[in-house]
Amino acid sequence: MSSIDLPNSIILAADDLAIPFDRREPETERVYSQVSDVDAYSIDQAEQVSRILPIRFCTLPEFYLDEAVDNYIPRDYKEHERSYDVRRTRAMTCFEPFYSHYVDIIVGTALRKGVVLPQDLTEEWERFFENVNLEGKSITSFAKTLFTEALNGGVAGLMVDYPRVVTQDKAAQRKMALRPYFTIIKVDDILDCRYANGPIEINGITSFETKVTYLRIKSEIRRASPDNEHFEEVVPTVVVYDIPEPGSRVRVRIFEKSTSGGPNNYFSPEGGTTYLSINYIPFVPCYGGKEEAFCRARPLLYTLQGLTCITGQRLLTLLKQFTLTLLRC
Questions:
Q1: CB 114 within 8 A of CB 137
Q2: Cβ partners under 8 Å of residue 204, min gap 6
Q3: Residues 23-60 pLDDT 10s
Q4: What angle is formed at CA 231 by the lines to CA 225 and CA 236, rounded to 5 degrees?
Q5: Which strand (E) or helix (H) includes residue 291?
Q6: Which segment of 220-229, 235-244, 307-316 scores lowest on mean pLDDT?
Q7: pTM here?
Q8: What sign for the dihedral angle of Cα 212, 218, 219, 225?
Q9: For the chain, N or C: smaller number of CB within 10 Å?
Q10: Domain definitions of the chain by residue range
Q11: Contact call for residues 266 and 238 (beta carbons, < 8 A)
């Protein structure tokens, strides 16, 4: 009698249970391994970005309200089309941005006292914290924006950047009073983020920690049109940060999207490759939900995306619970 090869249902193998962000799926690995576009998401980032799409129904209702109504208010069985249209219209006209109000309350409660700074700050550091992004935002105002982006996306990036100037003359740069500044990288602008554990040296202090080894983000360049002085061109770009060799300075490569080529035609312009004066990528993830891995987290309000459809009593209960939790921090 021939034996039948049956899988063992008691002892599970590593690949028996499918989990989110599973990198062992052969078909997924095969598809992504053939993608060479500089503006393409990595496997992990594509999964992370797909989770924030429902949140946009609440954060950007003027763009996604129609899609949200179609998804969350489907047509009932045997419902007349005219009746369904009336029901959808009523839902849209009665829309209330509970989600946005909810986020504002959480952020305002968490930062109700502002960011506390040391008393012995120098005048230079005081000026920096009064305008951390070169756009007039104080450290407290900047933290509120960063916290909001982290809540909506699960994670947001804090990048320390430096103004890019044409001249390489150090004296001319000092005369411009150039200095570093903070910038926020939204989760959907992070195309790829790779990391490794190892030693890192900052200001002569060496520590062993997790550090970013490769970062690819979406950006843009704004410049005057050479053909029309009244028009400003906005060119999509991708900025790639990497460390070519261990211990070497960070390499920065800028890829511009061609205006005359295909949809994914990016090129590196002349002078598009520069090097930072440091040997680490100045990028730090800020988590707004449960951390699942480096630069990956579940949005804290992901399960509350339907706040516009819940009752007022339930909303007040949720607000009370979160407020009490933040007050204990």
A1: no
A2: none
A3: 556 777 777 777 778 888 888 888 888 877 777 777 77
A4: 65
A5: strand 290-293
A6: 307-316
A7: 0.78
A8: positive
A9: N
A10: 26-98+305-327
A11: yes
